Amino acid sequence: MDATTGSVLVAFIVVLVSVLARYLDALRRKIDDFRLKVDEDSKRNGGDLVAEVLKAHDVKFVYTLVGGHISPILVGCEKLGIRVVDTRIEATAAFAADATARVSGTVGVCCVTAGPGLTNTVTAIKNAQMAETPLLLLGGAGPSLTQGRGALQDVDQMALFKPLCKFCARVTRVRDIPSIVRQALCAAQSGTPGPVFVEFPLDTLYPYGIVRKEITGPTGSGKSLSQQLVTKYIVHHVNSVFAGAWDAHDFGPMPIQRPFATADEVQRCVQLVKNAKKPVIVIGSQSLLPPTEPDALVNALNGMGIPCFLGGMARGLLGRSSPIHIMQRRRDALKEADVVILAGTVCDFRLSYGRVLSRKSKIIAVNRSKEQLYKNSDMFWKPTVAVNADSGSFLVSLYELLGTSFRCDPSWPAELKSRDQEKESTNVTKAAQPTDKHLNPLKVLMDLDKVMGDNAIMVADGGDFVGSAAYIVRPRGPLRWLDPGAFGTLGVGAGFALGVKLCNPESEVWVIFGDGALGYSMIEFDTFVRHKIGITAVVGNDAGWTQIMRDQVPMFNSKVACELTHNDYEKTAETLGATGFLLDRSCDDKISDVLKSAQKSMNAGKPTLVNVLIGRTDFRDGSISV
């Protein structure tokens, strides 16, 4: 037999086995339908089973915008003490679930209705995918027999979410609900975390009696033979959906599979680090994923003494004033470094696709995702050692194998830190300069940094104002800075703030908004008021999409579509029941006082918005908006 014939034969066998497996599974399901009993008198419903699984996984919050397709899930959660938090748009519910996952180390859960309810979450789910957030999206759907037949809000939802989610499943039988939801929760957290989606046709969620009545129609069996056959088929279908529904189920968590570096992989990196004169670590959000505790990671980094650049959820990891945390001139440091450790950091646009790395540097890349591990390595950079594993635990293991005798020469981080101090001194000078009108945004942000409490958590949602804040405002600790991540999504602010505050009720939550981004979240102040969510939004109001304008005007000599209005956002917040403050040039010497008043309002449990009219500085000139 030649090689070609052998390959064809193997392919045929694989296809044959796959087809046989599908037929055998279908046969088993049919046998189960006849073997298992249907409790026609039961008032229980599939929503109760969903809630049981969530409860067993210690889910505390389910975010939603209510719809008839999903009512049984929401009611089931309420009965079991899971807090159901409703928002004004589905995207906010999904963003809140994203934030809950990030700060709690568990899976965030969002439940929305069919059709438009689910399509409204697409951007948020893509954002969660790019940010590698474990998020469970529960979605309603029309009855299984009417899908594709013109049912209300009917759309091929699986086709929409398969490119966005690690795991997608449609429930077809009530008895499968626990196992499918458990699989989804496990998949969300295993390997490289990400969003998962489970679709629930309406007939899998409502009680048997209601489903049978609604699907067979009010008249029951028709008079003609064909009508009677159709009715019998429908009844058989309903019975198969409910067969064995209330048998004993396992609701508990399944084992989570996480990739860890081997001792050999870590040992290969030990010698590179020991020989390095100017090592640098670039730490991304992935390093903060479970199971490594932030304190263990901080201990390892401080023990090694290697200068660190922090991005994403890693911002704040080393506190406000660590001697090894470097914020400025990253490009220069990476060019000078002889060893660079990319710990959960990807060579995408944030690292100029790898072009900021020196060809002379030894590059140690660690990432749970193999795709992200080698991103753009075919063009601009090459890893010396590539480790497909969890980066947080890798850094802890690296520290342990290096031993206490190793510590980076302190003159190297001190040299980089001096550059930080030079840049920060320049920023202070710029903050003191008056703008052409309104307040200097740098001064506002520096005052905000002084006012915020040690337990503060910051949410960033915007372009130019937020870009400035990233260099001025210091996160107070690990998991205390949230921005959208690599997708650069505007509109995360309200949802992130909602999820963060519910998970950290004792912490101050400050949302730094651009006035453009605020447009996505403004109505959610109603949500904050209804659910008694005390947060403070600080809005940098320069009446424009300034980050875009910085490039568009010099390139094309036009401000088209870039101009907004200095709206009275504080008054809009007040009409929704929140507390509002205005900061303008007349308050130049009272910025801290107004921010402290907002802080006091927030700490009293009141949603609060500070509308800050800001002018323009050259701080962000040359920033990239695409």
Structural shape: globular
> What is the end-to-end distance?
56 Å
Uncertain regions spanning at least 5 consecutive residues: none
Structural class: alpha/beta
Strand order of the largest sheet: 2-1-3-4-6-5
Would you write up a description of this structure?
With about 625 residues, this protein is of the alpha/beta class. It is about 45% helix and about 15% strand. It has a six-stranded parallel sheet, sandwiched between helices. Strands 13-12-14-15-17-16 form a six-stranded parallel sheet, with helices on both faces. Strand 10, helix 14 and strand 11 form a beta-alpha-beta unit. The mean pLDDT is about 90.
Tag the structure with descriptive keywords.
alpha/beta, six-stranded parallel sheet, 43% helix
Topology record:
Elements: H1 3-35, H2 46-56, E1 61-65, H3 71-79, E2 83-86, H4 90-104, E3 108-112, H5 116-119, H6 122-131, E4 135-141, H7 157-161, E5 167-170, H8 177-189, E6 195-201, H9 208-216, H10 225-242, H11 263-275, E7 279-283, H12 294-304, E8 308-310, H13 330-336, E9 339-343, E10 362-367, H14 370-373, E11 385-388, H15 391-402, H16 411-431, H17 441-451, E12 457-461, H18 464-472, E13 481-482, H19 493-503, E14 509-514, H20 515-521, H21 525-530, E15 536-541, H22 546-556, H23 569-575, E16 579-583, H24 591-603, E17 608-613
Parallel strand pairs: 1-2, 1-3, 3-4, 4-6, 5-6, 7-8, 7-9, 9-10, 10-11, 12-13, 12-14, 14-15, 15-17, 16-17
